[in-house]
């Protein structure tokens, strides 16, 4: 949100060069992918054997819900900028 997105209305530009935006996207994509993979691998192992399938299903649902809500809220953040 503090990168150089045009037109600017409310927030200042703290990272003027586009390379910062690319660095942030790379960092967030790797960290999100790694953490989501860890959760999906180890989550079902932390519950009883008979509940592992249900836990995996619930985790997949909430991961998808979080990604969908994040994508939807990006339009709100664009309005704020």
Structure description:
- The protein is mainly alpha-helical.
- It has one domain.
- 67% of the residues lie in helices and 0% in strands.
- The protein has helices at 18-42, 52-80.
- The chain is elongated, with a radius of gyration of 18 Å.
- The chain starts with 17 loop residues before the first helix and ends with a helix.
- The mean pLDDT is 85.
- GO terms for molecular function: nucleoside transmembrane transporter activity.
- Pfam families: Nucleoside_tran.
- Belongs to the SLC29A/ENT transporter (TC 2.A.57) family.
- Its main location: membrane.
Low-confidence stretches: none
Note the beta-strand portion: under 5%
Q: Tell me the number of helical segments per DSSP (H or I, 4 or more residues long).
A: 2
- Computed Rg: 18 Å
> What is the succession of H and E elements?
HH
Count of the domains: 1
**Mean pLDDT level:** 85
Describe the largest sheet.
none
- What overall form do the CA principal axes indicate? elongated
Subcellular location: Membrane
Main location: membrane
Protein name: Equilibrative nucleoside transporter 1
Transmembrane segments: 20-43, 55-80
